[in-house]
Amino acid sequence: MTTPAALRTQAEALAAPLPALLAQAEQLAASVLPGAHGRRRAGTGDEFWQYRQATSSDGGARIDWRRSGRADVHFVRETEWQAAQAVTLWVDRSQAMGFSGDKSRQPKAARAQVLGLALSVLLLRSGERVGLLPDLPPRSGRAQLDPLALALSEIDSETDYGTPPLSPLPSHSQAVFLSDFLGDPGAVQDAVGRAADRGVKGALVQVLDPAEEEFPYQGRSIFESMAGALRHETLRANDLQSRYRARLAERKDMLAGLARVTGWQVLTHHTDQPAANALMWLWQELDAGRGR
Fold first, then answer.
1. pLDDT at 51
2. 66 with 110: CB under 8 angstroms?
3. What 3 state SS string does 151-184 have?
4. How far is CA 230 from CA 71, 159, 233, in A?
5. Could you give the angle at which helices 275-289 and 108-125 cross, rounded to 10 degrees?
6. pTM of the entire structure?
């Protein structure tokens, strides 16, 4: 049985990185400078969307007389519908995400964590509901950030490669999966396919270290998975380069094909690239996905 002192020590160790992670996420979110999410269709909201020609069912109070004064017809000023949207994240926390090919670069896990939390900051500021698979349901409000940060900081100490859980997502919501997607491709296809069947639109962000793209290894090399379950030794690593790159290209093609079939979007992001680029892409794709 765990003693209170041991439990407190474990809790403090787990919570230690949270302020830094939140600070990084807040700083990254600030660099995007978003406005409120608009649904790009008429409804209840504060943001101007478009003018349309008035019909007989529009009362005089709805007429924009200033705009109508410049034409021979009457116009109505419409605003965007801004009802809250549920966005569910899955951030791969497997051992493989701890890889970094260079000490000057963040591990893949750190980049995925800060991207996921920064996106959550933006969405929660806009009144959206954000959740995290497998067991943190979408909720709104800044109070959701602490449990998100806590869950994101955990690492799966046993699994080499991660795959999205098959937990049902809210119908007609949105989802974002961040991973290297180097695990079982069938599991990824199954999870995204099930989500699409429920009308869920989303994005896949493949986070890779540049070394995983380039395969710069030569001569005698020992390749070992992060959890130690897989190991391969070779005297001529350079002979593996072309086969490795072909396999990686196949995996990217699989993700691209999956995105085409389901209506999702896909991005490959490298850890030597600015995180703000990937965050901006995600923000724009989620906004565009509302109209698809």
1. 66
2. no
3. HHCCCCCCCCCCCCCCCCCCCCCEEEEEECCCCC
4. 73, 11, 10
5. 50
6. 0.77
